Amino acid sequence: MKCKRCRRAEAAVELPSHHAAFCPDCFFHFFRRQVTEGIRKLRLLAPEDRILVCVSGGKDSLVLWDVLIDEGYKTEGLYIDLGIDGYSDRSKEKVLAYAASRGKTPIVVELAKEGVPIPEAARCVRMQECSICGTVKRYFFNRVAAEGMFTVVATGHNLDDETARLLGNLLHWQRDHLARQHPLLPGAGGGLVRKVKPLWRVSEVETAAYGFLKGIDYVTEECPLSFDATSLVYKEALSLIEDRMPGTRIVFYKGFLDPSNPLRKGPEPAAPSDAVPRPEDAPVADVALAAEVDSEEGVGAPRACASCGAPTYSETCSFCRLKERVRKARSLRAAKVSR
Fold this sequence. Notes:
47% of the residues lie in helices and 10% in strands.
């Protein structure tokens, strides 16, 4: 099969959703065009922005960083070491290796040093690891960006991620989440930094192909703590539909983003790290904590956390409350051992 664009070289990537197949060079052109068009259409980034790219070691975030560097944006990477035995070490190696190849030194936050490694924190508060992880990562994304004077935080969420989230929000009629779901979350007063998702137009298969053909060495395994994540179920369901009706995902998501859609109210300011999944998404063992955190999705301008100064709608942000819960659990465990 010949490349649809150049008509000369053999195609290396077939994309049924676009009724096209491309050779490597033309695929790179196509992919970058998809990303830059997504940025332009929603005005996600400006040439003068200082971008903090959140990199996990996986394909999507490293591909995003690669494209933004090639497009001439001013970027720095942020890697959060989640403290997951083995997996975090391998992920960190990929991030450091990629950064070195582009003359970069990423910012590294180690959750073990911050007192909240994800596996232990989840055991202490008896909540799903993914819920804890999301809260902690949002906290550090914003804190590092604000302290480093970055104008925007960029994450590698792709079309598959966004449509899976959209399907989940629709199935549970999470109207607040639907109103806030968008590739652009504007910044706000009180230290909330703008957040963007430049890969919203490209699929997981496309980012994987870009990374492979570009020679980007990324972690191929899934996070070992995400095996029961509901988002994987939604992704699988959408993949079945996409296989039968190519192009369904992008039509689904673009239709949702249409300003005339009554489920949307347009981009809203990014929520503080307090915004986490609703109580029904958390294990029953700690619905109380989930409900307490969720209640902080208030209105108006956030205020500074009394403990750390981060934006919050409560007196103390959810991260500081989480950290205190972990500290108390450790103390209790130590007391039991010493008896």
